[in-house]
Amino acid sequence: MKVWEVLVTAGAYLFGAGIFGIAGYMWWWGKRKFERSGQQREELVQLAEQRGWSYTPFTQGDGDAYFAGKTVNEPVYDYVAGEFRGRSFCCFEYRHRGTSQSERTQYAVLFAVNIPNSVPYTTVKRRRPLDTVEARLFRHGKVVELGIPSFDEAFRVISTDETVARHMLSDGLVRFLTSDPRAKAEPLRFQRNAAVTSYQGRLRPEHVEAKLDYLCDVLDRQGAMA
């Protein structure tokens, strides 16, 4: 066999091994992301008890006010509520499955910190190509640009009330979002009487205070709203 044939064959094997390796890693990561041990659940219960928060394994309707769309008696799990840094909050897990029986149950976690004033629906998150389409089709909102390149190039703001959105995004909050490394990974949503963030995965005890700290840091920079 010629040298070039050996190299091509070796390259093909390495390419195939790489594909299988990536697929295996993705499977492992998805499994890890959506699984949680009984010990972690017990640690979550213990955290709530230590902080004086309430814990409910399952409830319906208590999370309805915090979802982006209209829901009625949505079942939620591991519902934790209490006070953190002087503000009332709740967090919980919710689940959904596709139409196929073979599809794995998908888990997501929502954290909400309550604010005294009701505000219009406003999201602040990392820019994506289809954000403007989402704004027109799903929320009847408008893309809001602040005219600050460092912010507008990194984040997309969609709101049903541009004036209020500009007021919420004070100079202090804009500086915080453009400088804090957590901001791009933490989508923000303001609606009704809450500031909300969420992620795909399971509710784990080590995430609770970290996510609540982030939301409170955001609200601390909004002055009148907080």
UniProtKB/TrEMBL annotation:
Keywords: Membrane, Transmembrane, Transmembrane helix. This is DUF3137 domain-containing protein. It comes from Streptomyces benahoarensis. The chain crosses the membrane at residues 6-28. It comes from the Bacteria.
